[in-house]
TrEMBL record:
Gene3D superfamilies: Cytochrome b5-like heme/steroid binding domain. It comes from Coregonus suidteri. SUPFAM superfamilies: Cytochrome b5-like heme/steroid binding domain. GO terms for cellular component: membrane. This is Cytochrome b5 heme-binding domain-containing protein.
Length: 456
């Protein structure tokens, strides 16, 4: 099925046959469409999207999308221009893959933005992005990341060296576990960087470095992380689209989900106590249990043997290093304790920026408004920067996911000024406030659920 579709005598494409359902593109893409027509193609087997007013049929391409099927499917039937710019450091290279998928363009009478988005805000943010690119703020400094990797490897070496020199007392073992948990957490932030941007000019090097850091230094899967994390950036805090807020019925989050559960009389857990049991099953178990199950499941189901091999090198190295000191069961206990500590670090750092923020179903907002409603910043300080891997600048990271972390503080004043101009809230909290707001938000959501459960 083809190209621009059949045409009527007036030359307009015939409705119902515009572009077909295949992924083969538009044979020139001369057809024109309305937003209403584009929005009808938002189903699993029929997906169109718009980039710079051009309409693309991505139905078959989604299966080959390097960022994963879901992240591109989340924009089916929508304008994906801002997301396309945000995720692709070299748009001109990616456009080569778009050419065969082109089926037409928006009609001249159609607005550039869909779903009633604020055109002035979209244009101003694009102008800001153009300025960021001109000033080189999307270019990474390899030395920064090389030094960062060096400090992670130094922590690993110090932990092992202390055991060789001083032996395995309880206090020294605890200190070494803390150092390993710190190196694991910092390695997590580093692989997060490599997953988002090209630190080195040759992207193949960047790809290998991410495999090395998340696979060999952490024992996880780069593909699993990327496919999961890109969805979070594409639609943060949007139910059914952001995997980070898929709580598997263990928690109810935000203001709407608790009421929906309460009205339906759903009680998988005593949600009015979730701010208490969060401490027992949230931070302690996310990485040691939930993430490990997900990682193994993803690698085996996708037959991702490369990532599996990388992750196995971590465990081989760990047990070779620590078996002489602790034996098999002692080494298992140690890595479990390290994961336990790392999990607490990861949960609190990531959730203080997102969990207290707005959560909702799809609202088709522009890029800046969507990201700002789901994220907040934590005050800058040398400790906060290091402790959070610079994710205290969560707003800037979400607006420019391919920006290297050492430039967040430079673009932050520009983002704040744009938000003030358009009346978009730009939230900055202290570290203490960010951490306590996690618990407060869980309690608030639990109370909303209880009220709906008992009275509606």
């Amino acid at each position: 099925m083809g190209g621009g579709g059949q045409q009527t005598e007036s030359g307009e494409p015939a409705k119902g046959d515009r572009g077909g359902l295949g992924g083969g593109g538009g044979r020139g893409g001369s057809a024109v469409y309305t937003w209403e027509e584009v929005q009808r193609h938002s189903h699993r087997g029929d997906q169109w999207l718009v980039i710079d007013r051009k309409v693309y049929n991505v139905t078959q391409w989604v299966k080959r999308h390097p960022g994963g099927i879901r992240v591109i499917s989340h924009f089916a039937g929508e304008d994906a221009t801002e997301a396309f710019s945000a995720f692709h450091p070299d748009p001109n290279f990616v456009r080569k893959f778009l050419k065969p998928l082109l089926i037409g363009a928006l009609a001249p009478t159609e607005p550039s933005q869909d779903q009633g988005k604020n055109a002035a805000l979209v244009q101003d943010f694009q102008a800001l992005r153009d300025r960021v690119e001109r000033e080189g703020l999307l270019r990474a400094r390899p030395l920064f990341f090389s030094l960062y990797l060096g400090h992670i490897l130094l922590l690993e070496a110090l932990a092992l060296g202390l055991l060789w020199v001083w032996g395995t007392s309880w206090s020294l073992t605890l200190l070494c576990s803390l150092m390993l948990a710190t190196s694991q957490s910092q390695a997590g932030w580093l692989q997060h960087d490599f997953g988002h941007l090209s630190v080195f000019k040759k992207s193949s090097w960047n790809h290998i470095l991410q495999k090395f850091v998340i696979g060999h230094l952490k024992g996880a899967s780069a593909n699993w992380w990327n496919h999961r994390h890109f969805q979070h950036h594409a639609k943060p805090n949007v139910f059914s689209k952001d995997p980070d807020i898929n709580s598997l019925h263990v928690f109810v989050l935000g203001d709407k989900q608790p009421v929906e559960y309460g009205i339906k009389k759903l009680k998988y857990m005593p949600y009015h106590h979730q701010h208490k049991y969060f401490f027992l099953i949230g931070p302690p178990l996310l990485i040691p249990v939930y993430f490990h199950i997900q990682i193994l499941r993803a690698m085996f189901l996708r037959r991702d043997w490369v990532d599996l091999a990388w992750s196995m090198t971590f465990y081989l190295r760990f047990f070779c290093c620590y078996y002489p000191f602790f034996g098999l069961f002692g080494s298992v206990a140690m890595i479990s304790f390290v994961r336990f500590l790392e999990s607490h670090w990861f949960v609190w750092v990531t959730q203080m920026n997102h969990l207290p923020m707005e959560m909702d179903h799809e609202r088709h907002r522009d890029w800046l408004t969507m990201q700002l409603s789901a994220t907040c910043n934590i005050e800058q300080s040398p400790f906060n920067d290091w402790f959070s891997g610079h994710l205290n600048f969560q707003i800037e990271h979400h607006l420019f996911p391919t920006m290297p972390r050492h430039n967040y503080h430079l673009v932050a004043p520009l983002v704040r000024a744009l938000c003030e101009k358009h009346g978009v809230p730009y939230q900055v909290k202290t570290m203490q406030q960010g951490l306590t707001d996690v618990v407060r938000s869980l309690k608030k959501s639990g109370d909303l659920w209880l009220d709906a459960y008992l009275h509606k």
